[in-house]
Design a protein that fits this description.
The protein is α/β, with parallel strands linked by helices and 250 residues long. It has seven helices and 13 strands. The protein binds fe (ii) ion (2 copies). It comes from Nonomuraea rosea.
């Protein structure tokens, strides 16, 4: 059995509470009486992509468990690379990263489009991902920021991952995909994509209300009073992925 934690959208610098919320989540994970296989953070790390926000995020998003952090639409590739990945001369190329434990592989892809809120996976990233999937018999968790399907939320859907068809075809051809993990929506959701589980992490900085809760526009969507929440995903020996959501009181 593999247990991973999945959190998203810490948006350091967005609100006075953002750092405290992220810190509470990471302290909770560190105090678990269990070694997680990985902690995945699926984007929107720094709300404005500023160096000081990444400096704070870098301190907060550390753990005794292995942590893999990806970018979202709020992130800036060069500053993300410089501050979080320690690159001296950071490029603006997609930030695609792989982490391999001895039981699973984690492919964190960059679905951001610099300067835009919607997302896509470019050809370079798709080729990189296909290589990771082809190069192992272990189960692979594929992670990125933007959900590739409609989530029935008009504001979220308007900035989802567009041109999803090549990704869908690629993933449908790879049975060793354990699940697809995304963020961006600030709501915990479980659905399917390309025949695999598609699991959306709830938000740490805020929670998006659903249309039937009044969340019909960007102005009415985000609730900053609801507490931060994270997901645990369990991959069992039969290959089934089960998801649990946990509210963390900041
Ligand atoms: Fe976000
Ligand atoms: Fe986002």
């Amino acid at each position: 059995m593999i247990v991973i934690a999945h959190l998203s959208d810490v948006h350091i610098g967005a609100t006075p509470e953002s750092a405290g919320r992220a810190g509470s989540v990471m302290r909770y994970l560190d105090a678990l009486p269990y070694d997680l296989d990985a902690v995945l953070v699926t984007g929107d790390i720094a709300d404005h992509g500023r160096a000081e926000e990444y400096a704070e995020a870098g301190k907060l998003l550390t753990s005794r468990h292995p942590v893999l952090i990806g970018p979202g639409n709020h992130d800036v590739r060069e500053e993300f690379r410089r501050s979080l990945l320690g690159e001296q001369r950071p490029s603006a190329k997609p930030i695609n990263q792989v982490y391999r434990s001895d039981r699973a592989v984690y492919a964190m892809c960059d679905s951001s489009i610099p300067g835009q809120d919607d997302g896509h996976l470019d050809e370079e990233t798709l080729a990189w991902l296909d290589g990771v999937l082809a190069g192992t018999d272990l189960p692979v968790f594929v992670a990125f920021h933007h959900p590739p399907v409609l989530l029935h939320s008009p504001p979220v859907d308007s900035i989802r991952l567009h041109r999803h068809e090549p990704l869908e075809a690629l993933l449908a051809a790879r049975p060793n995909v354990a699940a697809v993990l995304v963020g961006h929506a600030h709501m915990g959701v479980a659905t399917t994509f390309a025949g695999h589980p598609l699991l959306v992490a709830p938000g740490v900085v805020s929670t998006a209300l659903l249309p039937w809760e009044g969340g019909i526009s960007f102005e009415t969507c985000l609730d900053y009073d609801l507490p931060p929440s994270i997901a645990f995903h369990v991959l069992d020996d039969a290959g089934r992925v089960t998801t649990y959501h946990r509210v963390i009181m900041p």
